């Protein structure tokens, strides 16, 4: 129980809010302030949090000791990297790889080719699933029967995101059936255009997806929809190489 609560404390920190007080952590996690105070004290003692002179906390460098072996052990990331590089070189786009983390998309690799593109997500950065094409592709990676529980979790945890993104998901479901990809929609990162598709991984693997993104200010004169065949081919190539790896589980069924 204490471990779970400690992890919830660490998850309260974001790139947008890197410094938090015990009161703010309590508000975000729903944990009593006295409990938060004990947890932050312990986490700081082990280097996972660092306290400033005002008494607020930020993540400590010890957190990186957890992240590095995770990234190094991600077979999907190692397999996908050369495919992402080739796709970026051929299309002139910035290409990203993301996986699902609860009700968010978490970026695990990025290859930049479009130098005008200001959006290069850091490894480990997250965004709500329904906000982006790559997030909605992750939702569509689930068989239809599994999507309803996932959408219910999104609705409960982030009602505003659910309300804003549901119509985009419905539009992308139709587009995916017709063309095999999702498309950037809505106000999130309005200066960036993107298409995305999920990687057809084994059923026991976490859903993963890739995208091609380009700045609307770039000089690349191409409709991203024309790049969909290359994007889909890259996703299939990654899936085949992943499935051919030792001890690969059975394939994901839709």
Automatic annotation (TrEMBL):
SUPFAM superfamilies linked: GAF domain-like, Winged helix' DNA-binding domain
Chain ranges of the HTH iclR-type domain: 1-61
GO terms of molecular function: DNA binding; DNA-binding transcription factor activity
Origin: domain of life: Bacteria
Keywords: DNA-binding, Transcription, Transcription regulation
Residue stretches making up the IclR-ED domain: 62-244
InterPro entries: GAF-like_dom_sf, HTH_MetabolicPath_Reg, Tscrpt_reg_IclR_C, Tscrpt_reg_IclR_N, WH-like_DNA-bd_sf, WH_DNA-bd_sf
An annotated GO BP: negative regulation of DNA-templated transcription
Protein name: HTH-type transcriptional regulator TsaQ1/TsaQ2
Organism: Achromobacter pulmonis
């Amino acid at each position: 129980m204490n471990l779970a609560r400690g992890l919830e404390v660490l998850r309260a920190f974001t790139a947008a809010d890197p410094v938090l007080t015990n009161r703010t952590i309590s508000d975000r996690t729903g944990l009593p302030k006295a409990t938060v105070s004990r947890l932050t004290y312990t986490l700081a003692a082990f280097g996972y949090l660092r306290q400033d002179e005002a008494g607020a906390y930020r993540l400590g460098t010890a957190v990186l000791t957890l992240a590095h072996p995770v990234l190094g052990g991600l077979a999907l990331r190692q397999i996908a990297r050369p495919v992402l590089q080739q796709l970026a070189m051929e299309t002139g786009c910035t290409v990203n790889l993301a996986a699902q983390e609860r009700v968010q998309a978490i970026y695990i690799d990025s290859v930049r080719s479009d130098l005008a593109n200001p959006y290069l997500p850091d490894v480990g950065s997250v965004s709500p699933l329904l906000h982006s094409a790559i997030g909605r592709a992750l939702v569509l990676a689930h068989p239809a029967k599994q999507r309803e529980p996932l959408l219910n979790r999104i609705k409960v945890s982030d009602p505003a995101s659910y309300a804003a993104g549901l119509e985009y998901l419905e539009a992308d479901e139709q587009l995916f059936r017709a063309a095999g990809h999702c498309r950037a929609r809505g106000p999130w990162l309005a200066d960036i255009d993107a298409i995305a598709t999920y990687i057809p991984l084994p059923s026991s693997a976490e859903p993963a997806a890739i995208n091609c993104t380009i700045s609307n200010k770039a000089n690349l004169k191409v409709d991203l929809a024309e790049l969909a065949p290359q994007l889909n081919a890259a996703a299939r190539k990654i899936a085949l190489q992943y499935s051919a790896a030792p001890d690969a589980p059975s394939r994901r069924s839709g």
